[in-house]
Amino acid sequence: MRLQFHPEGPALLVEETRRVLVVADLHLGIETDMARHGLYFKSRSRERTERVVQCIKNAEPDCLVLLGDIKHSIPLTSRQEFREIPAIFERFRSLLPVRILPGNHDAGIERFCEAGEILPREGAVIDGTGYLHGHTYPHQSLSGRFMICGHHHPVVTIRDEVGCALKSPAYLLADLDEECVKLGRAGEGERCSRVLFAPAFNELSGYDVMRTIREPFSPLSRCMKKETAEVFLTDGTFLGPVAAVENHEDDRTA
To answer: What does the DSSP assignment read for 199-212?
Structure first.
């Protein structure tokens, strides 16, 4: 398996026998929710759509996998989402097949989808790799596999000697404790699973990786082996183990 990072997304191309482009957490319609809280932004759905299209053109994939939280409003669907999502899906379908792993924000997403596009919420295996949104325990078919999930919106912050900070979406990679996550109620001898937490495509969404490490909030984040966790920028730059990021942060806040 080969991974190709597309920082213009951020998006990830996974290549085995097929080329699968992975996009997580579009959160279309987020502007409506922000307006309810007194923060007013013009809809950026068109810009996000064109960024996905650019990633498709650059990566030349066989399939687009959307790792859930395509829409933002819960539990209902906002007028903005009703207005925008159908045309966005048609734009993607005009270029390649689309597969969707529904997330916790995706109640009602089925009304916008065609037959065969929706995969199980607990995840699915595509060309040997496991995919899921990440808010549920994975299906047993994902046991022992390399998994890619969304839901966690990882962001990393690095400060230099004068206090200037780099804040960027990031990938978080870690082994999973099989006994903890109980993938498929697996018995002894199962291979260890690894999970790659993908950053949100929506530029307004982010959650610091150190908060996820210290205060895990999902089955996968609670069951990852923190001592194996590593951080990458969206262009594939390796920042090092989480311990290095954590120590750097502690040095700056001491």
So the answer is: PPSSTT--EEHHHH
